[in-house]
# Entry
Amino acid sequence: MVELKNKRAIVTGAAVGLGNAYAYALAKEGVHVAVCDIRDEIHDVAETLKTYGVNAVAWQGDVSDPVHVREVVDGAASAFGGLDILINNAGVWGASVADDDLDKSLDDYDRIVGTNLKGEYLFARAVIPILIEQGVGGDIVNIATDHMVTCGTPWDRCPNPGSCAFEHPRPTGGGDAMDLYDAAKWGLNGFLYGWAKALAPHNIRVNAFCMGATDSYMLRSFHNFEPSEEEVASWMKAEDNAQVLMDILKEGPSGRNAQNVNFCVGRTVTTEPPLEQIYVYQEQVTLGGGS
Ligand SMILES: NC(=O)c1ccc[n+]([C@@H]2O[C@H](COP(=O)([O-])OP(=O)(O)OC[C@H]3O[C@@H](n4cnc5c(N)ncnc54)[C@H](O)[C@@H]3O)[C@@H](O)[C@H]2O)c1
# Structure
């Protein structure tokens, strides 16, 4: 177990929802936190984070904008004297189906893939050289969705199928209007395994969180902000999810790596042991070859 106090983190999309819970959980552990969000109230979040006795800085902007990404990453590293943790959380959902017209599809692509895939890509690309240069390891956690690992991937890896809230095996994938959202989240698997393999020699771990329904602004918006009591009771809590994040960060360099950490509706949110590693990174990756 490693101490998180005085580590330095960036959390994207931290104004509301899961990102907000992650930022507060980190601050309660004594982590200095840089937050960003497309919403202006992110500045208020930073002010409240400071009441936990940590340094906190905020930027308002779009994670798909490389100028904003550079500003946040360089600004945070400069404010804190370095970086240790990136929580790639900002995400959006929008309805998209296979026969959407092309103009709508292009707008959807820019927004949904721009936020859920490009944003995570840009933030990691800006943060990774800093982590490598520091030479003391670090953590990247990408926030994905259970649509890509429903019942585990493959589903027969589910540690406890008996408690599944869905008919088992639940097919992988989201609902009817999710093709683009799921494609973007599935794309995170490429980053998960590629980065974990490349960064393991530098003691930088890369994991992903794959949530089922968790109470947040986004989930409430699906229910026109009037969810029934039964629906809310069935949802997981962002604070419990954030506690698992703290536990996994505290595992340190010898902890799990390259894992899709699955949070299934119907199962208690606890920090489960790492899954058997089936996507083992075997060969060494040469960094610096992409320029
Ligand atoms: N809540 C769930 O049930 C659930 C399930 C699976 C996955 N997720 C994922 O968890 C993450 C957090 O979702 P949430 O439910 O807390 O959503 P949310 O809408 O409650 O919060 C998302 C935050 O990201 C910010 N954001 C959105 N687009 C942005 C952009 N382009 N640039 C900067 N900030 C942006 C929003 O303003 C908001 O503060 C997302 O990646 C989402 O896809 C959530």
